[in-house]
């Protein structure tokens, strides 16, 4: 796709998401559920603040991957939280985005279709690098390829540790060090 087609596709997804949120608010207003409307608006505000924090980390390829992940028809839902929003200086954004894409695709290929699969990322950025705490819950049908992926080196700047792994859970830390200047 060219840049204009990508922009149109992106705007189509954003418009669809906002229309869903507005319809949710309208439906609850029609039912006189004003407390629920207030909750929905607070959720939208929190989500927007998290999107802004992620966008400001100075890792545009990685941020884009996370921001559009729920539009990519994965068999799991992605949720994230930016716990520290220090700009990622001298971090190899391309490698981080490439690893994330490879991991998401691999996970997608080995989770049970139509199960309640959920991936949560906690993103903690520091001057020295970025730490991702990754917590998957759902049903993994084949754990071997994922275990192999997590144990093979992807980049000399990246380490994965504290792995907890079963057919229903995958939890680990990924640390990516900033490049020395």
Molecular structure report:
Helix 4 (93-110) links the parallel strand 1 (77-85) and strand 2 (118-126). The chain has a domain at 58-177: Sporulation initiation phosphotransferase B (SpoOB), C-terminal domain (Heat Shock Protein 90, 2-Layer Sandwich). The protein is built from five helices and five strands; from the N terminus they run αααβαββαββ. The chain has helices at residues 3-30, 34-55, 60-68, 93-110, 144-151, and strands spanning 77-85, 118-126, 129-137, 158-165, 169-177. It has 181 residues and is α+β, with helices and mostly antiparallel strands. Helix content is 47%, strand content 24%. It has a five-stranded mixed sheet.
- CATH class assignment of the domain at 58-177: Alpha Beta
Average pLDDT taken over every residue: 93
Rg from alpha-carbon coordinates: 18 Å
Low-confidence parts, pLDDT < 50 over ≥5 residues?
Answer: none
Give a count of the beta strands, DSSP E runs of length 2 or more: 5
CATH architecture annotation of the domain at 58-177: 2-Layer Sandwich
Task: Summarize it.
With 181 residues, the chain is α+β, with helices and mostly antiparallel strands. It has a domain at 58-177: Heat Shock Protein 90. The chain has helices at 3-30, 34-55, 60-68, 93-110, 144-151; strands at 77-85, 118-126, 129-137, 158-165, 169-177.
């Amino acid at each position: 796709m060219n840049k204009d087609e990508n922009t149109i596709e992106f705007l189509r997804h954003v418009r669809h998401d906002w229309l869903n949120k507005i319809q949710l608010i309208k439906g609850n207003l029609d039912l006189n559920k004003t407390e629920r409307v207030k909750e929905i608006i607070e959720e939208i505000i929190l989500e927007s603040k998290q999107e802004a924090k992620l966008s400001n980390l100075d890792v545009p390829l990685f941020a884009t991957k996370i921001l559009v992940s729920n539009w990519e028809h994965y068999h799991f839902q992605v949720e994230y939280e930016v716990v520290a929003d220090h700009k990622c200086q001298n971090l190899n954004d391309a490698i981080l985005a490439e690893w994330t894409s490879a991991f998401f695709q691999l996970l997608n290929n080995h989770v049970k279709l139509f199960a309640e699969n959920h991936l949560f990322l906690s993103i903690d950025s520091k001057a020295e690098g970025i730490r991702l705490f990754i917590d998957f819950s759902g049903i993994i049908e084949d754990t071997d390829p994922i275990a192999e992926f997590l144990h093979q080196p992807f980049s000399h700047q990246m380490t994965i540790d504290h792995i907890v792994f079963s057919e229903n859970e995958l939890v680990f830390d990924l640390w990516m060090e900033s490049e020395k200047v």
